[in-house]
Amino acid sequence: MAAASATVQAKKTLRAAIAKIKKTIPENQIALQSQQITNHILSSPFFQKSQGVSCYLSIGGEVDTSSLVLSILRSGKKLYVPKLDSGSLHMVRLYGEEDYRTLRSGVWGIKEPAWEWENKRRESGKPTDDDCSGIDLMLMPGVAFDKGFSRIGYGKGYYDQFLSRYTASKSGSAPLLVALALKEQLLEAGKIPVEDHDWKMNLIVTGEEVFTNDKPSNRPSTLDTKA
Prior knowledge:
Elements: H1 2-23, H2 27-43, H3 45-49, E1 52-55, H4 66-75, E2 78-85, E3 88-94, H5 97-101, E4 104-105, E5 111-112, E6 116-117, E7 120-121, E8 137-140, E9 144-146, E10 151-152, H6 158-169, E11 176-180, E12 186-187, E13 203-205, E14 210-212
Parallel strand pairs: 1-2, 1-8, 8-11, 9-12, 11-13
Antiparallel strand pairs: 2-3, 4-5, 6-7, 9-10, 13-14
Helix pairs in contact: 2-4
């Protein structure tokens, strides 16, 4: 119990430290790194092979995904974005650029879809939905990542809980988990305190480099990790 409490406190301390660092990053540097990361993703074999992609809608201090979201929509792949409801994270489909541009801000100012689009309920990322093969690639946000492929989020556990539910509904198969990280968010291996429920990333993409986890501890993915 004491060890768990110490880990939680260590995570809080790290989040606060990274938040201070992120405030010092010039906007033009975030824009440059974000475009480089977008280029890495779009040119990667794992993206080209994917069919259902989950991507977060960015807020300040994160890798900007606006250009990436538009590129995914234009690619013809299915795009799923986060939606919070009753304390749980859901992934729901965006249907095009007009849909994206008309999104309203939800919790914490993050844009998110309504449950319906053009008077029809949106497809969710669950593979049990009609005409839905599910999400095979998930582009992940985070406060920070380390070279041991650990991730620290914002403290609510939304993504870890979603992934546990998702894999239970898909016979244990997980999406390929790809972290999008500014260079200031990437730490040396072992620097992020972890708990049993924390998911490891399959890849970490920065503006300068793509890091591949050769020994992920997660459940098997339907995509390979070749960048």
